[in-house]
Protein 1
Amino acid sequence: MPDNRPIGVFDSGIGGLTVVRELMSLMPNEAIVYFGDTARVPYGPKSPATVSRYSQEAASFLMSRDVKMVVIACNTATAHAAERLAELLPVPVVGVIEPGARAAVKATTSARVGVIGTSGTIGSGAYDLAVRRRLPDARVYAQPCPLFVPIVEEGWFSHGAARLVAQDYLEPLLEMDVDVLILGCTHYPLLRELIAEIMGPDVALVDSAAETAREVSDVLEKYDLRRTDPKPPSHTFAASDAPLRFRDIGRSFVGDVLSVVELVDVEAIGHRPEVFSAP
Ligand code: DGL
């Protein structure tokens, strides 16, 4: 049966709007509820237990808005909480790591794959596992790049300091001769040009956002969950802090559809056990 309910998406902050942009362009008839945990960003350096708790609270908020599926647009949250959320939630859950790994496996010819992400994502080994599950002979070289998130948040996309930091982080991957590099963090596509310049033309860069949108589309198709309402969809954006800042920066990702941002006290919502049980 078609399902006119919205798709729920969450991230630690604004970066997950890169996934929303892809969802909107691939499935313009779907409605979206987005939650950015701007009060508690960044997730990257936090412990798995804390990120898992934050993710359950975010999912709880989305379920309270009657979403038909949950998309984890944050790599760190996917690494620490995707399995748990898939067990807990009565709706399909899609993270960004499996789609990114699938795209990397498709793109590599040498089976030498690089991955960059936050310390949490790289420390979890989630990309390594996801790549080698599909390509057991693959050599996965992982590099945490913790300074990239603050650099992007400062808008220093081509600043000299960004270049120095990027050269330092990427040098070991160049030495390993990878032919694919997974941009395993919501913020890194914004440094794409700089990263591409350093890695050179022979290294394909994989951005999980577009792949994730394709996976969401496949899931909707598989479970017959597409929205068929002929009225244009309306979208909801919510953040746990500084909604005006979220709106102003977020517009550069998704344009004017981002006009109102609700302020949500996600800690007060907490874990709502009733939303985690199947209907
Ligand atoms: N959204 C996070 C990720 O993709 C990056 C920002 C953060 O550390 O919270 O891993």
Protein 2
Amino acid sequence: MADPQEVLSRRVQSALGAAFGADYAETDPVIRPSQFADYQANAALALAKRLGRKPRDVAADIVAHLDVDDVCREVEISGPGFVNLTLREEWIADRAQEVLADPRVGVPRQDRQNIPIDYSAPNVAKEMHVGHLRTTVVGDALARTLEFLGHNVIRQNHIGDWGTPFGMLIEHLLDTGEHSAEAELVKSDPNAFYQAAKAKFDESEEFAARARARVVALQSGDPETLRLWRELVDLSKVYFNRIYAKLDVTLTDHDLAGESIYNDMLAPVCDELERKGIAELSDGALCVFLDGFTGREGKPVPLIVRKSDGGYGYGTTDLATVKYRVEQLKADRILYVIGAPQALHLQMVWGAARAAGWLPDDVTPFHVQIGNVLGSDGKILRTRSGEPIRLMSLLDEAVERAAKVVAETRPDLDEESRTAIAREVGIGAVKYADLSVSHDTEYTFDFDRMLALNGNTGPYLQYAAARIRSIFRKGELSPEEATGPITLTEPAERELALALLGFGSTVHLVGDSLEPHRLCGYLFDLAQTFTAFYEKCPVLKAGDGATRASRLALTAATLRTLVQGLELLGVHAPERM
Ligand code: ARG
């Protein structure tokens, strides 16, 4: 890994071991970027207490044992006992050269883990809403990043494809006729179909009775009912896939692992919980009571695994997901990219699964909490009439608005190219807006802000990449031809090279913390550092051939990092913009 912070960390750590003995070789050397040097090691201050010595003396001891001649051109003790570290230009240049030559752009692989990741998870015959949009976008970015890091990522699209609503949905399908225009509506406007079924269910006792009988037939595996059920799921798949294609996310039919696949596990799950004494009957319902889960007045909150009418619930299915992902998928980590309000639900499911022995200590479940998306009124985003926003029209609007931006910035391009660019910019803007804020915070959906060409936005980064491509076009060479060698003279060149070295550790950080916004922040900083470099250092018109070659190499490395970084986020960088 080329990240100076990590290299210096290791070097200071060995100095600590050499100076104070093996007990100290694991101490965190606390390396931070500094305004007085490139980095500062703060270890001496923490160690002074432990050693009963003056911090500056401890710092002197560290420096005496520090072997960084190849990396640093200056090591200096400052203040109460900081160790200031200034890197050698040649060292930075060599590392940047390595990044440029590396097909992985300086991102080492991690030890391979099996990682099922539960994301998107819309419901059959229902409209996807902005909440589903955010889990889809964040989940997909994590799936791409973890895969790039070398993991075996197993996408699990836990669609809502089972349960009582299917009674009324199937009866409504029969009423409208299987291949009727109304049934076909599920492919484009599923809510209309759902609402119509719901209205009949509420109004007609005769229909409601049929619907209830249909649920029983579905649960007992009646072949004709199952066929109709599958018909509805298939119609919905068409709708989901249209959204996924428009969004350019990696989910396919192969990744569908909906609620229905757990059907046969639900009764055994309950039996096992009961047999092991983890679940007990309470008012006819089978419940798990866990320590530490209490509601108002200290009353224990149950996880209901079988309702008093014998039906199973959302929690039962999620218990089955844990069991399946551990036993069948051999999970090392299990990610649930789902709404923040479901935190308690997951805690209880995992608690019950642990108690049952289905979740071993070496398997880590993780809730990637998705915060709400708000409208400009600060409430959950809805249309004026109070309906949830239709995702498809939201995406179409983003593309339309992007088309206006492109028409202004690139009137020289033909209609067809402009349309293609608008699609990438509009969708990229929406996705990037979801990714650039920490996934568990709420944020306000605002087209103007997400489509702005300045600030931490998708279009800004896409534009940065496109502008670099235009430098190469103007110079009539391809970025691949820019191989250096990199030499660093100007401070702005040094800054840029240093920024490039941070990509690998940033991607690792995203893989470990599961926070894509950290990658957004890095890319935004990198693009700004590049702009500063480009203002001060002419590239194509550099004074001499060697400087030009070096600057072109830095420019090419920046382009590759931006494009690779955006790709991990699932945002495409258009050739021109
Ligand atoms: N279908 C659910 C919804 O639309 C989300 C399911 C999330 N995944 C899970 N394993 N519970 O809210």
